[in-house]
Structures are given as structure tokens and as C-alpha cells.
Amino acid sequence: MIKVIDIDELFDKYISDFVYGNIGKIKPEEIENEIPKLYEKFGDAPLKELGGKTPNSFYKDYKGEELVECLKEHLKTGVSVPDFLCEAITADGKNEDALFKALKEEEDEELVIYLMNMLGEIGSKKAKDIYLEFALYEDRESVRELATELLCDMAEEVKESILSHFEDATNERKAGLTEILSNCKGDDRVFDILAKEFALNQNNIPMYANFLAKYGDERAIPLLIAAIENEKIKYSDFEELRFAIEALGGTYDKERDFSSDVTYKKIRKMKNTKLMN
Question: How far is 158 from 252, CA to CA, in rounded Å?
């Protein structure tokens, strides 16, 4: 088993040594600017705590399964997960199988998030069925939202599954499924769902207008114009709708009075303050 070492703590000590060695030579505010460069140097610095290896080389000779186990131990013991470990796991996508296997077996939320992010970073599509399961049935919001985000990049591949489960999903889950579908193209079934969900969710106009804009079908313009014509519409919703209309190739130039809208008044105040300065 790979020894769990707090490499972030070692870096803090590395910075402290640098600061102590440069007292009077460098201003405190300049030290912060040096941190990225120091981190690069630290990555190539042999450390006795790592058996003479550098942070960059410490994890390189281990197999994917061992690296994932090390990640688990870091989370279990509360020792911060070093970037060097994460980089070793995701390097060249060679540990995709180890990550996928762990994701199938693990239930710890924090670890599941790490595994999903790493699979996403290497561009893996191997876990799309697991992500779909999360998007449809997962109760943990952070897991469900990340699954939704990852599925947006493979929307066409999961479209049929989402369409077959959409009507049975809860309203909470339908929002994520609608977001995924908005990344598909040229399917009337998808457009009908986006249009229907937009009409049903007028309490969240920005999000659903964005879904229609992202889908890119100009047939949505009349729906958006009908919504923007609502005399009781908030200024923030008005702006989002106008943006969506323009994104689809339409225009909306009608003058509207938002002088009593709280958001509008704040924005006007900020603009006037900038002009005065």
C-alpha cells in the first residue's frame, strides 16, 4: 500500500523555508506571486519524507488500483489529497479501468465525486450508464449534478434512454434531464420536451430559456417572445429571454418600463456611479 503523506503540508513547509531564507530580500506581497513558480520547483525537489523522490515522481511507478486505494486512504484519514496524486491517476488516461471499477463499487459521496471528476478529465465515456443511473435516481444532489454535467458531453449517446425515462422522472430530476437533452440536435421529440418544460417552469425562466437557446431551434422564438411580452416579467428574466431570442436569430426591440424593478434599479445605480467616477 502507498504510504499516505501530506504533501500539501510539505509544500507549506517549503514555502516557509523560502520565506525565512528571503527575509528582507522580497516583499510579502511578492511572495504570493511566486507561489506558482515555487510549486513547480517543489514538484521536482527530492524530499526525504518521500524517500528521496520528488512529488512529481513519487506516485509514477504505482498501478492504477494502488493509486485509487491511496486516494481512498487520503479521504478516509482526512489527509488532503495532493494534486500530484490526482495527476498520476489521470495521466494519459491509462487508469480508466481502475477508476471505472472503483466507481462501480464505491458509495462514499466524496470519493464518488473524485472518481467522476477524474473520469471526466480523461474524457472517459465508459461510465455513461452509471452517470445516467445517477441522473435518473440519485438522491445526493452533488452526485446527480455532476452526472448531469458529464452526460451533457455525451448527450446523443444517452438521448434514447433519457427520452424513454423522462415522463416517469420527478420534476427535480427532469431539470437535469432537460439540460442534457438541450445538447442534442435535430430531434422533434427533444424540442417538444424543451418547449413543454419551458412553459411549465416560468418560475425559472433563465435556466429553461438557456436550454432552448442552446438547442438552437428557431421555432422556440415565438415561445420566448410570448414569455417576454408578459407585463409582470422581472427585468432579470426579460434580459435572459432577450438574450435567448437573439441567440436563435430573432430580435426584440420593444421599449419596456422596469423603473420599479429592484434589479433594474440596482444596475442603473451601479452604472451611474461608474459614470460619475
Answer: 35
Residue 34 grid cell: 511566486
Encode burial over 12-32: b for 16+ CB neighbours within 10 A, e otherwise: eebbeebeeeeeeeeeeeeee
pLDDT of residue 243: 96
Give the span between the Cα atoms of 71 and 112, in whole angstroms: 11
Is a pLDDT exceeding 60 seen at residue 81?
Answer: yes
- Given the C-alpha cell 510549486, which residue does it identify? 39
- Note the pTM of the prediction, 2 decimals: 0.86
Length of the chain counted residue by residue: 277
Q: What is the DSSP letter of 186?
A: S
Predicted pLDDT at 147? 97
Exposure string over 240-264, b if 16+ CB within 10 A, otherwise e:
bbbbbbebbeeebeeeeebeebeeb
Contact in structure between 59 and 67 (CB atoms under 8 Å): yes
How far apart, in whole angstroms, are the C-alpha atoms of residue 158 and residue 128?
A: 8
Region of poorest pLDDT, from 49-63, 67-81, 162-176, 254-268: 254-268
Q: Which residue has the cell 445517477?
A: 134
**Whole-angstrom Cα distance, residue 8 to residue 239?**
44
Nearest-angstrom CA–CA distance, 164 and 98: 31
